[in-house]
Amino acid sequence: MYIVPLYGKSFINSKNKNRIVKNLSAIAKVCSNYKIKMLLESNMTPKKFENIKKIIKSNNCFFLFDTGNRVVLKRDFFLDLQLFGRNIRHIHLKDKNNLNRNVIIGDGLVDFDLFFSFLKKIKYKGSFSI
Description:
Helix content is 39%, strand content 22%. The chain has 130 residues and is α/β, with parallel strands linked by helices.
């Protein structure tokens, strides 16, 4: 896997979208030549991810779901999991508090019991990191 973090200055917006998507297309092509999955790590919506994946035109572009970064968004955490669905190839297990600070797993906002039961329901078979 080749993970591309898209946060901060790399977060895709209307000003940088064309440039970043062009670079992602080039990276995806190289990854594909070496049978490496390219994973985008971002707070983007599932719809935006699907749009970017279509533009890139690559069958080796997937999503990295970061539990800590996603839980602090004003979005439905579990709906996002469901919508990203089979595009998720890796999960970064992390917890954050309501101040957006990393905390010990179990001390923050992520309900890991519910999270893992949901992963079982959607039959997630990818990898994890902490």
